[in-house]
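Internal tracking record. Fields below are filled automatically when a chain is submitted to the structure queue. Please do not edit lines marked as system-generated. If the sequence contains nonstandard residues, flag them in the REMARKS field before resubmitting.
Queue: standard
Priority: normal
Entity type: single polypeptide chain
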Amino acid sequence: MRVPRPSRRVARFGRLARVMGSAPRHHVIDHVVRRIPEPQHDGCVRVGIDGPDGSGKTTFADELASAARAAGRSVVRVSIDDFHNVRAVRYRQGRESPVGFWQDSYNYRRFQRDVLGPFAPGGSRRYRLAAHDLATDAVLDPEPRTATPGTVLVVDGLFLHRDEIVSAWDLSVFLDVPFTVTAERMALRDGTNPDPEHPSMRRYVEAQRIYWSACTPQQRAGVLIDNHDVNAPRIIRG
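SYSTEM-GENERATED OUTPUT FOLLOWS
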């Protein structure tokens, strides 16, 4: 489902350029920036941007990070897409399995060790940006970086309100977009089928329905946003 990072980044920067001039969007981004809490003592703040695949998480997180920096905050951007499991784990329940996509896509142990833990209260602030290369399937162990005290960590990705990591977020956002819209966006981005009910989409759409049923991320999120229209997102709650 996820194409290699360079192609994704080109597509995302194109979308970002198209929406940056929207006044309603600026209003929503500024609202979320104001919701980011101040750090306690020398600690950091962890912010998660969740939503279905194709909902606009990465673009939103990039804009949020830019706005937070403009407001004087130090920011680190991380994507959980750089913490996939290797293929042998991701597909051990079958390449078409929605349960496999839900259970096996991401390496939460590495994500906790390399990202969430270092930015937690009392954490080392020594973090790594990636644990896996999706294109080559290589396991990565880059040199750690050290964040400054008070840094805002902004993470985008699927399943950020699942039980293993939901308590990590000092602020979380869920971008609510129907599958009929996200499937069309993904078709433009990844070349997948634009019909969310097409058999080729079952692994991904059904996995996200499992997530919604198990974790109710729309209710768990601190801020719920209707991102159906990227130029005019609407705050539903928070």
